[in-house]
Design goal:
5-stranded antiparallel sheet; Rossmann fold; single chain; alpha+beta; globular; 23% helix; OB fold (Dihydrolipoamide Acetyltransferase, E2P); 6-stranded mixed sheet
């Protein structure tokens, strides 16, 4: 993997130790995911230079920002990065446009050169430029905060749980804009969250943090499909498939999604044919059969091959399946595994309820 971020940090707080070594890709959204206290934000702050560990190395786009072995440390204000906090922290006395231009004046960059118009369009805030921060919703403030970070043309964008302070409705408003980032930006984004739905919706690359260490890291689908990890065994386990809308069946309020060799029916998605979509398939909603069902209410019946099996101590088996070019997980009981005689390499049929597929 060609990486634009190579980071190694060792930090001792006494009650908490960070010992992380990771390489992240040069584009897309890398999500640092894990429970509270796992070291996600501390790692992000080390990348930003807001923490200075005794042992640390950081290289971004071929440029070394930190190397403790050489006594070198680039201070935060000299690092070409954008940082988005949980709170947008907009200047209350400046309009949205004023907030966007504030940093540009400091570095002597004109709005046109900063790509301000494109950034405004990307975050959908054109109609907000004349407003004062007090007249913005929480989601609007965060979109302005992201735009303010991007217009500085950083080499990397760091986001520390930007949705944590928002209610459900505001989160739903801003997530589509965040999802655009991995397609629109040519810089890497490092995104911290402990919310699984955000990680599944946004991540291109997933880093699992636990106890101040990197438990696993890799492309999203590859990491999710690792049945040796607790994430695949959790009752909320999902697989994420990329596809395009193939069409709609308006009479039934259904959408057909083409996913590289497989087609899925799901509840209606408000988007035109050809639109790229990302869907989440919950492992607990995938059942298995040895023969294609002849009469079933389940619309999605896909031929699959068993590629992995893992039993837990609670009578559950995690089954990893190959469906065309995609990997799928299924949670079944240990008894069902034995009844079906499942073995690696077997051909089966995966059944997925259309109502259980999330967009």
């Amino acid at each position: 993997m060609k990486s634009s971020i190579n980071a190694r940090f060792a930090l001792d707080y006494g009650t908490f130790n960070l010992d992380a070594d990771l390489a992240l890709p040069g584009t897309g959204i890398s999500v640092l995911f894990g429970p509270s206290g796992s070291g996600k934000t501390t790692l992000l702050r080390c990348i930003a230079g807001l923490e200075r560990p005794a042992q640390g190395y950081l290289e971004v786009n071929g440029t070394v920002w930190q190397d403790s072995s050489q006594g070198f440390f680039l201070p935060p204000h000299k690092r070409a990065l954008g940082y988005v906090f949980q709170d947008a922290n907009l200047f209350p006395h400046l309009s949205v446009y004023g907030n966007l231009c504030f940093g540009l004046k400091r570095i002597g960059l004109k709005p046109a050169a900063a790509g301000l118009e494109q950034t405004v369009e990307l975050l959908g805030i054109g109609h907000l430029l004349d407003r004062m921060p007090e007249r913005l919703s929480g989601g609007e403030k965060q979109r302005v905060g992201i735009a303010r970070a991007l217009v500085l043309k950083p080499d990397i964008l760091l986001m520390d749980e930007p949705l944590a302070s928002l209610d459900f409705q505001r989160k739903q408003e801003i997530v589509p804009y965040l999802a655009r980032l991995h397609q629109a930006l040519e810089i890497p984004v490092v995104y911290v969250t402990h919310a699984w739905q955000e990680a599944a919706r946004l991540a291109d690359h997933l880093v699992l943090m636990n106890g101040g260490r990197v438990a696993a890291a890799g492309p999203l689908a590859e990491t999710l499909s690792r049945i040796d990890l607790p994430l695949a065994q959790d009752r909320k386990a999902v697989m994420v498939w990329e596809g395009r809308i193939a069409g709609h069946e308006a009479d039934y309020h259904l959408t057909r999604i083409a996913c590289m060799g497989a087609e899925l029916y799901t509840t209606a998605i408000d988007a035109s044919a050809g639109t790229p979509v990302r869907v989440q398939i919950c492992a607990r909603d995938v059942s298995l059969a040895l023969e294609a069902p002849q009469a079933t209410s389940i619309l999605n019946v896909l031929p699959a091959t068993v590629t992995g099996l893992a039993d837990d101590r609670k009578g559950q088996t995690v089954v990893r399946l190959q469906v065309g070019a995609h990997t799928l997980l299924s949670h079944i009981t240990l008894k069902s595994k034995h009844s079906l005689g499942l073995k690696i390499g077997m051909s089966v049929y995966a059944q997925i309820k259309g109502t259980s597929i999330l967009n």
